[in-house]
Each structure stands twice: as C-alpha cells, then as structure tokens.
Hints:
The chain has 700 residues and is of the alpha+beta class. Helices cover 26% and strands 20% of the residues. The longest helix is centred in the first third of the chain and has 16 residues, at 219-234.
Amino acid sequence: MPDQIPRLDRLARAATAAIGAQDGKHWGSAGLVAPGWALTAAHVVRAAGAAPYTVTLWNGRSIPARTGYLLSGVPDSGPVPAESDIALVRLLEDDTDHACVWLSDRGDPPSREVRAYGWYVAGGKRGEELLDWNGVCVVAGNDGPYSFRLGPQTEIPKGSSGGPVIDLSQGALVGLTKASRRTSEGDIKDGGRAVRSTLLREFVSPVVVDPDHALGPDPYHALVCAHDRWHAEGDLLRDGWTDVQGELPGNGLPDITTSWSPGDRLELFELLAALPAPDDPTLVRSLLRVVFHNHAKFPAISALRHWRDGHGEIHQYRMQFTIEALPYLRYAKLVALAVSSMPGAASAAADLDRWVGRRMRRLGLEADVSVGEVALPGRVDGDITVQGETNAMGILVHSGGHAQDPPLAAEPVQVGILDARPGDGPSVLLELEPALWSPSVAFHWRLRVLDPEQDDDAVVDADENGDGVLPDDLPLRLQRPLARLFLQLDTPERYAPLEVVLPPEHFDLAVQRWLPQAAVTDLDLSDPACWPLGVRRQVVVRDASRRGGVDPLWEMRWKETAAAAPLRALRAPQPGRLLRRAGLAGAGPDQVPVVCRPAADATGREVLRLALESGHGVFLWNAGPHPPNGCDERCHSFSGNAARLLADAGSAAELPERLRVLRERIHRRDPHAYWAKPLALMYDDADRPLAEPAGVLDAP
C-alpha cells in the first residue's frame, strides 16, 4: 500500500478546493464530487446564504459559486449538528474542467487510517497566501451514525474544514473534516472530527438554496449518476482512481477472473447511472436479501437510496460465496430485472443485462446457475408481501375483491396508503423519558426501529444528556432524526408507524400534531409531505412502565382482544357511578375502555392507571380539555362516536389506521370527523414487548 499513497495523494489533491469570500477571505475547503459540484461542511458556507462566493481549484483558478443544497437543522449561528453539517456547492461557470474524488459506495465505518485534505492561510511573512495541506490520521472511533473521530497524529489547520477525508484502504472519500483537534484540561489534545459522506444519501429532499441550479426531484440520485459518469470517462485515462484502488487492500481479492475488481465496479456503476432511481426505498434492501438467500441482514435503518448503495453493502458479506464476483453479478442481474418494467428504462436495463451475461461467461457454469436463475421477490412493501391492492378510491381491496368501507365517512376519503398495521413491517419507536432532575418538565429521548425481520432493536439515535428537552422544543429537536428514519423506512404503499413510549401521566403529549421535516421550508400544508405526523402515518401510544417484560394479565387480555370482533366500548368512568377497578378488570375480551378525560385530569389519570393494571393493551381517550363541572353533552357525543368507531372495526388491529384516516379527514376539513380531533389511542402490543433501557440512572 505505501507505494500507492503518492498516486492516491495526487488524485485527492487535484480534487480538493478552497472556499472563500469574493474579497479573498478564506472560509474552508471542499471536495469536488461531480461536474460543477463540490461537497463541503455546512458551517463553512452557511453565512453566505444564497449569495455567491468563490471556489479556488488546485491549479489556482477561481470560480464563482453558490450553495445549492443544505440539510435541515443548520442553525444560523453556533455549532452545526453532525447530522446536518454537509452542503452541496454549485460552480457557476458551465463546463468547468476539474477533477473529482471517488465517492465510497459503502455504508460501513471507514478503515483504520485516513488522509484528510484541505487548504489554509499561510500567515506570518507569507500573509494571506493559500497553502494546500494533507495529513494522515487514525480513525479513533465512530461518533454515532453521522461522524467519526480522528486521532491526534496530525495537526489539522484552521481552514481545512469541509475538505475531503480519504480512506487509505479503499481509496475513496468517506468523510469531510468537521473540526480540528482542541486542547482540553492538562493540555492533552484530542483528535479532530469528520462528518461521514453517507450523509449525502439524505439529499433526497434537502433544503434548496439555489433553485436555479437544482439537480431535479432526487438530487442525490442525480449527483451520484453524474459522479459515476465522470469517472467512467475520466478514469479511462492512465493512472486514474480505479488503477490506484486495484492495488489497495480494501477493494477485495487480487484482480483475477473470479474476483470483483475496481474495474468491474467502474463499468457497473456507469450502467447503473443510466437507470432511473429505485421507485421504492426498500427495494434495494429486498434485492440484497435475495442475493444472499436471506442469510445476511440489512437493517431497515440502512439508507440505500441508489443502486450503487446496494453494491456497497455487498462487500462485508461477499465471502459467503466461494467466487467473490457472484454476489455482485446476482445483484446486477436483479437490478436489471427490477428496472426492465420501469417507464423508458427497457433499453438501459437490457444493456445492464447483456453486460452481466458477458461478465458471467468469464466465470463458467456455476455463475450461469447462481446468477441466471435469480428471480425478483414478491411485491414488497415495508419488507412484507402485500396480499391486496388499492382501488381507484384508495381503499384496500383484499384478494376476495371486496373493498373495506372507510370508517365513519360521509363520503369516501381518498387514502393513497394501505391499511398497514404496527408489527407488519418496520416501525419507529420514540421513547420519551422524563428527566428526573430537571427543574421543569423535560424529556430525554431515544429512537429505535422495530422490524419483524430483524432481532436488533438497538438505539439508533438518542439525547440522554443534561436536563432534557422541554415539551415545546421536542417537535423541532426530533424533526431531523425522525425525518431521517422515515425517509429510509417509508415506501409508496406504506408509511412507517410511529409508536410513542410515554409514562401514563404524559399520555396527552400530542405527537401526532408535530410537523415533519418538510414543513421547515415548505409551509404549504396542502402538500402531503408537510402534513402533521398523525395525518400521514399511524401514531399510537405505548406504556413506558411495561418495558422489559410481559405481564401475564396484559398478554392474556391482548390475545383475547386481538381475536374479538366486533368491539364494544366500555365507558369509564360510567356517568353517575363510582369508579371501581372491578369494572375494568372484569371487562369482556371485546370491550375497549373509552375515557372522555385527558391523562392530565385526576380522574382520567386514575382510569388509565386502573386500565393498565387490569391488563388492557388497547384503549381510547380524549386528550383535550374536559368540562370543569363534570361530563356534559360533549362527553356523551365523544363516547358515542368512539363506540361507533370500535363497532365498525373488524378487529383491534384496524384501529391505528382508522384513527389515521379520521385525522386525515380532519385535516381535509371534514366536519363529520371533527369529534376525533382530541382522540388518542393506546395500542400496546404484548406480542412485541419493549426492551428495558440499558444503564441505571443515578443522581448527579
């Protein structure tokens, strides 16, 4: 590998640019990633807004530029969170001839050694002269899914932020420099920090800063295709990126017929760049499972937005095959099959299929059997096979051909989503834990993904430090983390449900009214992407006190209620009667408690406590204010409508979707649905118990 470093260094330096004000002041660095586009840290260019600035290439040529895209969550001042610290910069001179880095297609952590590149101001006698810099760093550890730590082997100069970080084993861009090292107590210096380049995958729906130079409806797909086309042409020249990569240890076995070489990858990526984007965010992951005969796990949180992202996931599992090239060719064959029916893609799919055939012939008979006989999985929505389809009104039609009637609708509401249920595919679990020592009500939060096909429900994002987050600040603080997970899990037919884990005294927290990420820049609420969470996806509440195991009473009642139909409302408390536990404990399997009071109300809190102690996993309540002088006609109306909702449901499993439809009707100003505006649902599935939080809280 040492012999290849000077060659790799030459390629990376040529693709590293400086960014600064038009008056010559240096701001930071960037990596050139596609014709006319550079990648940098958001904190380097955020002060410019939509105003132009200057990008200086390695040869000294200065070009006007403007920020094209940012991710949401970039504050106007102060530190930029790692999950948002990335920006795409557009060079404003057309047909600018420049080099490009090679973007890694892999989502696994970088190798042990990386080299960072950038520009800095010389200072001293050399004044404002710009000098190029690079230095080798050891990766000291991963810092969550968005960034990694750089060891202190090299002093990172001010001005190199945003510059490319190249994996010395892969020969590919894996990150951008975010921060230089700092001095802590005792003058011990920590390493720097880098943002992972996989954040690019979140440019599917970014903040558009420069609409005049947009990359189209899917900027990530367009950028990657432009990048791969450039390399397919430029790396044909002697001593390009693929020539260097072939000599590095992180690119598979030595280049023989049965291996998968950087040259193979280059040819495949050029063909993939001619294809339309996957029309379903889960499709790439589903194809990978077919590649490995379901013997490899690809977690639902892995963002696989482009065909090349799937190629990158193969690396860590490729040695399950005796011939290294086989899983890559199986995947390419499946992509060709998946794309062949997309509008206007038949010719490009045929080109890919022919290329796979030519590459297979170099491997012999085993490849013909292993690759030629692959078949697409059944229609996949959220990694489950759909047994029905929607009719023209958007109502689910089962295999028997009968449509489900929309619940409580004066007129059918067009719903472009199947009545998916929590547990039939991935769902997002938001755990909100009150901060015990906070001076006011505040929450720590954790995010997990519950996937019936994955055993791993580890925390994927969390904020468990300090005094917690105030309730009014939760919607904005969680907007970005939730949007990232939904972007990966949602499909055209199924939006991932959101299950909110809360202590009963906080059940009234109206998470269903939170606005998604898109509302940050687009407040046109007629756009479904900007609808409140509970309008577009199922939002249900789960009991935090039930984590870590299943109470036998809860489990028994859950199974009985799940099998019961139709359902009956058990109004609690009964008007004019004393609230007794026996009334809830003795409820029949088909009876669901309906509470006309919020959890914050003393009586409502007591009813919810008794319902939980009696094993109920499903109940409805009014999270809005209650009349101060006892129940009145509004309570009777609420309870009567809730009873009809239960009676119309074919089973308890339909309730989350029926409530979502009601919330959509309210959003569409259907007066017949307004009664349900304060309606909330606890749907605490005993068949999917929640994990006990790791660690023990201790007093500070």
